[in-house]
Design a protein that fits this description.
Elements (H helix, E strand, L loop, with lengths): L9 E5 L2 E4 H10 L13 H19 L6 H11 L1 H10 L4 H21 L8 H8 L6 H30 L2 E3 L21
Length: 193
């Protein structure tokens, strides 16, 4: 009898490119592209967050947003570097795939910096209005400036994402419902048999 096993599940598509359970699992394990590291099955919310990030991934590639090698190397090291590569290999996952996802995440972050953060200007008047009357030290003013700027960037990026979703076809595969068991784990010892 033939050995019939499911190799991977296709959960969605982005502009006719399939999005697989393994891809979302790896992104969540790495804590990239809108996902936070967590254990347990992949949920519909995990998939939704991953799909929301995809128009920015596409746009950053189309615009040729570059990730300097030193930046990518530092991000790889922060993710675990050689120890991560060993855990990936033990789980049967190509470390180069993980590095590409980390690079995509860094590319999106640079896209946000170049497209939105670089054009988010907070004036002294904005700070005064946010803080209200009275004297405020420079550290408080600096924290307020950064908070206001971050809010401006978030609003602008969220509006862009809404508009981008109109241009990029993103859809879940009909009849495919979660939660989905993870096909692999990067936890130490989880893949030992």
């Amino acid at each position: 009898a033939a050995d019939l096993r499911v190799i991977d599940d296709v959960l969605a598509e982005v502009a006719s490119r399939p999005v697989t359970l393994s891809e979302v699992t790896l992104a969540r394990a790495l804590g990239v592209l809108g996902l936070e590291r967590s254990a347990g099955p992949i949920t519909a919310a995990d998939l939704a967050k991953y799909l929301v990030a995809q128009p920015a991934v596409r746009e950053s590639v189309q615009l040729g947003v570059d990730v300097p090698t030193a930046d990518l190397d530092a991000a790889w090291d922060r993710a675990g570097g050689a120890a991560l590569a060993a855990r990936l290999t033990a789980a049967g996952v190509d470390p180069a795939w993980a590095r590409r996802l980390i690079e995509a995440d860094r590319r999106v972050q640079r896209f946000v910096d170049l497209r939105f953060r670089a054009f988010a200007f907070v004036t002294d008047f904005d700070i005064d209005e946010a803080l209200g009357p009275g004297a405020h030290d420079e550290a408080t003013r600096a924290r307020t400036r950064e908070k206001l700027r971050a809010n401006m960037v978030t609003r602008a990026f969220t509006a862009w994402q809404e508009e981008a979703r109109q241009r990029v076809r993103i859809g879940r595969i009909p009849g495919v419902a979660g939660p989905w068991p993870v096909p692999f784990s990067l936890d130490a010892g989880a893949n030992a048999r």
